[in-house]
């Protein structure tokens, strides 16, 4: 499976085409819109979320609620486009028009953004040409793609859920997720303002976000994604680019502003002895092979173990600040305070939804690669055979 996205932050729409989905997969706009709404929520979101109400249109590859096996095309229209039609239009400007009156050119790159380096790479003196695409607005359609992937995983008995574990040093007590299913965790998360499983920590997070917004600053945090029901043996130790943990790490780090990733107990492994890190192998007739613990996060040798996949990503504070940092005008080379676009004081809760969906996509993608997947019933049958084989191995 693969997909491409197209569109700018203030363009007419965001577009994606997904190729390689099996036929007969149930898909509805309603389920995708639910995830899009969750992405727009979470405490700390900025004014753009008040302007846009993201909804998807399925414009290809689905008939009467089921995929055809052909590419699936999705679009999400930008409601704010009506205010940007002249500024972001695709047609050349008339010769009698001063481009400076229309283009809202940007020559002052913002620290922490793609502005300056992107301008260098693609030769743009107007840095709006960079920020329009490098904007996290693009994650809207990536969430839509991930929602489709979750629909596929759901048909295979695999669930994916994300929650916020930390914001600005405030850490949640995640013991609440121990022993709970992905659906039970989701029920807790969806009732919380910060998508957190710890109400006490969440209240402190809300206060920190509010205080940070008043100060004109921004804060980051950590999100955790849990994948439940994945059979053992997904991925491979044979080649570097087929290792499941490597692919999940790349997916997590591809999200805007994400700068770190870990599995299981992660960097804590550096502070423990091997006997305190590796998961002992158990077997019983009812469950087959299991692990006494899950410190490695459901992964060994680049493959799934059958235990829940646990992966975390760290999001840096958003670099667009209302008390902007110093920058340099690329035209005059004079020092300026960096320009301010609409932004969030904290997008960690929203980013957890993005993380949930990009991880879901990568899991679905590697499954489709590993098994025959032209039709959903064939894929379902093979996954069940894989579970049975692993249990009886």
TrEMBL record:
One of its GO terms (molecular function) is FMN binding. CDD domains: Chorismate_synthase. It comes from the Bacteria. One of its GO terms (biological process) is aromatic amino acid family biosynthetic process. Its EC number is 4.2.3.5. NADP(+) binds at residues 39, 45. Pathway: Metabolic intermediate biosynthesis; chorismate biosynthesis; chorismate from D-erythrose 4-phosphate and phosphoenolpyruvate: step 7/7. Reduced FMN (FMNH(2)). The keyword Flavoprotein applies. Pfam families: Chorismate_synt. One of its GO terms (cellular component) is cytosol. It catalyses: 5-O-(1-carboxyvinyl)-3-phosphoshikimate = chorismate + phosphate. PANTHER family: CHORISMATE SYNTHASE. Belongs to the chorismate synthase family. This reaction introduces a second double bond into the aromatic ring system. NCBIfam families: aroC (TIGR00033), PRK05382.1 (NF003793). Homotetramer. This is Chorismate synthase.
